[in-house]
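Weekly modeling sync, notes
Attendees: S.R. (lead), two postdocs, one rotation student

Agenda item 3: backlog of single-chain predictions. S.R. asked that every request posted to the team notebook include the full sequence so nobody has to chase files. The rotation student volunteered to paste the first one in as an example of the format we agreed on. Action items at the bottom.

Example entry:
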Amino acid sequence: GAPTKELFYSLNPTFLTGWQSIATSKNLGTIEELNANGVEVFFTKSQKTSNLDDIYEDILYFGKRLNLEENAKKVVENMKSEIEKVKVFNSGKKKVKVFAYDSQESAPFIIGGNGIGNTMIELAGGENIFKDSNFGFGTGNWEKVLDENPELILIVDYGDKSYESKIKFLKQESPILELQAVKENRFVRIPLSYISSGIKVSKGIEKISEGLREVQE
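Predicted structure, as returned to the notebook:
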């Protein structure tokens, strides 16, 4: 969460970045108020994007802002070449149907079609079964998972509910326990930081692609 206003200003900040929700009147104040108090505010484009170019742009911006321009350029070049390798590997291979499961039991909380997670699944050689939804993360439904019969289940790993406990739920109690992918343990673990906008997306794409390989062969 955000620090209190008092703590924030006691540190004499001149620059603020992070989640957009911190620049609201109930947190650290509006952008106008922060600017008036000598704080420059920058929110990354990539918080609300499904486009890799926005992530590159943010990295290059921080490079400039923090006098690490050469480093930032290298980071972006490496990311691009890692992703290019995956694309080349996948060219001509059939797309693998993927169900990207985050959490929740009564209805699955999932990766939808309108965020960077969906772009990553596609670049890795997959097809997100919830690609037609208009959110990045949101609530899907078990019926669609059953209808689509995905070949692979991507499980987002973070927080206090372990990867193992999510698999246990899917295999023992979920409405999709009879699906082939579930029975055959076709699960791929992806840490949340690898499927969130940032410098780990190319590694995330590699990770997903590796998980898809067994199904592609």
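Discussion: group reviewed the output briefly. The CA atoms of residues 1 and 136 lie 21 Å apart.
Action items: rotation student to repeat for the remaining queue; S.R. to check formatting next week.
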